[in-house]
Structure formats: C-alpha cells, structure tokens
C-alpha cells in the first residue's frame, strides 16, 4: 500500500483519538479528490498477456485475468495520498465461474430434454442465484482495502431475494414501469450494507430521483430518435427519384439514429453516477460526483472510433480513459482528518475482531 503525506489536514498524533477527531471535525468539509494514475500503455501490457493466456487456456485463465485487472485499477486509484488494493484469489473466482457454468449447462440440457424440467430448474436457479450474488458481494468487499483496512458487505440473504428476484420480476410484469424503483432498491441494498472497517456507508436517494433520471433519459431518447429520423426522411425527399441517393440518405438516417442512441448512454451513466454518490455517506463523510455527460460522450465516442480503427487493440486505452475521468470527478468531503478516521476504524476492528470475517470464498464474477 502506498501512502503519502499530502493530506489536506494536519498530521494526526502518534496515538490518534478517533472520538476526539469526530468531536472536533471541521465545520466546512475538506474536499479530497480521488486520483487515477494508470496509463493505457501500462494496462495494455497486462491486457494483452491476459487475453493471450485466456485464449490459450480456453478461458480458465480468465479468473487470473480478473484479479490482475482489478489489482491494476485499484492500485492506481488513490485518495489523500494512499491507494486502494484488491486481495482476491483467482481460485475463488474460478470456483464461482465453474458453479455458474454448471448451472447454465444444466439449464440448457434440461430445456432440450423436457420443458417442464427446465421450468423447475429455472425456479431452482431463482432460489440459488441471489445467495451466490450476496456471497460474491461479500467476497468483493472483503478483498478490497484502503490503507490496509478492509471493506465488508453485510447484506442479508432475505433482502437479497427482494432485490435480485422480486423487484426484477415486478419490473417485467409492469413492462418496465418499476425499473427505476428496482434500481433504487438495489443501490440502497448495496450501499446501506457496506462498511469500511466498522464505519457504515449510507444511501439516502429516493425512488423519485431515480424516476427523474430514467424519465429524462427516455425523453432524450425519443427526441434524438425523432430528430434523426426526420433528418433521414428529409434527405430521402431531397434525393428525389434517384434510387441510389435515396438509399444513401436512408443509411445516413439510420446512422444518425444509431449515433443519437449512443449519446443517450453516457447521459444516463453520468446522471446515475452523480445521483448515487451524491447521496452516499461514509460515517461523517460524504461524496461528491461531478461527471459531465458531454465529456463522457466525447470519451465514449473517441474510444469507439479508436477501437474500430485498431481492430480492438485500443480497448485497454479506452478503459483507462473512461476510468480516469470517472474516478477523478469524485471527491470525498471529509469532515474529520482522514488519517485519524482510518486509524480509528482499524482500532475498532482490532477490538471487535476481523470485521471481514463473515464472507465466503466464492466470487461468481458478475
């Protein structure tokens, strides 16, 4: 773990008093910006080796690929002079993927042998899958750390069935009308049951905020599709009776619709990241996310062009560009010295036992 001395707060005493740090927290939160130091060329070397070995081993190496990738991105993400880290073991990921593969294979075979058997197996999957997802979340958090202190996920299995089964089913039955509410419940479940050491995260965004993001995205989709379609029709009319010109105009219109739809994705992603993190707190601290949809669209569009022109070799550079922008638009609004906060949490964990003990050695890698 790398550490630095460029904290926005004075250095803590040799034996920090976490309670006193909270009692004397600054009236105005001190902004601590997240930073990403990775480069496309560095990640390219990791990515190309991962890709080749995954192909050669028929996918088995993909578990090691995930660990190496997460370690690279974690260790190049820093806050207040210290980096994050990932400690997951490839064997656990491989085990999880093997379970999912066996379940998927059984479902495919059952569907060909007897439709009723496939239905029964689908019900069994609905029963088992939320349990796997919860254990995967526990694994991911328990193997993530900052300044040597682990995160943890404490969500219950019972609530997982609501989040991963009940709400998605209701969304389907209501033809998508409950999708924003289901999304809000998912984020609420994830953030309200995550902690850093013993300090809890909290999430206070309501369903109305999610409906706002979804409705604005839907309205934007309708507008851009209509504009692109009208432009295509206008080009077709202006082309007159020339069949070649009309076909060309139609293609341009379809291309316009496609590009317009692509523009909606970055808006949705930007609005959602800002909504989620601007309503998330960690004990006395809060977060601020300021992702701009226009900038995210520019990065997305240029990444897509780069990947197309290089036949996929630009993919690692594209991922680094996206990660750097989204990470560096994040700020922790610290209401107490962060060094003292982390030290206090480490002390609490030491007194209460390992806060990350309640997790299972499995990751289904979703």
Please estimate the helix content. Answer: 55-70%
- Broad shape: globular
Return the string of H and E elements: HEHHEEHHEEHHEEHHEEHHEH
Strand content: 5-15%
What is the structural class? alpha+beta
Stretches where pLDDT is under 50 for at least 5 consecutive residues are 1-25, 352-360
Count of helix runs: 12
Widest β-sheet, arrangement of strands? 1-2-3-4-5-6-7-8-9-10
The separation of the N and C termini measures 26 Å
Pfam family, one: DUF898
Protein name: DUF898 domain-containing protein
Organism: Cupriavidus pinatubonensis
InterPro entries: DUF898
Description:
The protein has 366 residues and is of the alpha+beta class. The protein has twelve helices and ten strands. The protein has helices at residues 18-23, 40-56, 62-75, 90-113, 115-142, 157-173, 179-192, 207-238, 243-277, 293-309, 315-328, 338-352; strands at 30-36, 77-79, 82-86, 144-146, 149-153, 194-196, 199-203, 280-282, 285-289, 330-334. A ten-stranded antiparallel β-barrel has the order 1-2-3-4-5-6-7-8-9-10, surrounded by six helices. The longest helix is centred in the last third of the chain and has 35 residues, at 243-277.
């Amino acid at each position: 773990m790398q550490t630095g001395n460029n904290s926005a707060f004075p250095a803590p005493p040799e034996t920090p008093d976490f309670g006193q740090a909270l009692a004397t927290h600054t009236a105005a939160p001190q902004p601590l910006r997240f930073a990403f130091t990775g480069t496309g060329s560095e990640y390219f070397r990791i990515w190309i080796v991962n890709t080749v070995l995954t192909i050669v081993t028929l996918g088995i190496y993909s578990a090691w690929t995930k660990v190496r990738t997460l370690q690279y991105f974690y260790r190049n993400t820093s806050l207040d002079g210290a980096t994050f880290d990932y400690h997951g073991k490839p064997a656990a990921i491989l085990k999880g993927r093997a379970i999912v593969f066996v379940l998927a294979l059984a479902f495919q075979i059952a569907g060909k042998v007897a439709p009723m058997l496939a239905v029964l197996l689908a019900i069994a999957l609905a029963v088992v899958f939320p349990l796997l997802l919860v254990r995967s979340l526990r694994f991911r958090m328990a193997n993530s750390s900052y300044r040597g202190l682990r995160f943890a996920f404490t969500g219950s299995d019972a609530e997982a069935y609501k989040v991963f089964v009940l709400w998605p089913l209701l969304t389907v039955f209501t033809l998508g009308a409950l999708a924003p509410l289901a999304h809000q419940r998912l984020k609420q479940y994830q953030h309200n049951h995550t902690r850093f050491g013993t300090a809890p995260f909290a999430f206070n965004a309501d369903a109305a905020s999610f409906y706002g993001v979804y409705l604005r995205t839907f309205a934007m989709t309708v507008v851009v599709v209509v504009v692109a379609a009208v432009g295509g029709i206008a080009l077709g009319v202006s082309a007159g009776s020339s069949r070649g010109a009309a076909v060309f105009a139609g293609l341009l219109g379809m291309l316009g619709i496609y590009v317009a739809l692509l523009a909606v994705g970055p808006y949705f992603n930007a609005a959602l990241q800002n909504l989620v993190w601007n309503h998330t707190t960690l004990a006395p601290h809060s977060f601020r996310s300021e992702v701009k949809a226009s900038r995210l669209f520019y990065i997305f569009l240029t990444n897509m062009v780069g990947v197309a022109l290089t036949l996929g070799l630009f993919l690692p550079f594209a991922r680094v560009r996206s990660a750097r922008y989204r990470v560096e638009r994040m700020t922790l609004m610290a209401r107490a010295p962060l060094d003292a906060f982390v030290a206090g949490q480490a002390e609490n964990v030491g007194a209460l036992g390992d806060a990350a003990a309640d997790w299972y050695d499995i990751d289904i890698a979703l």
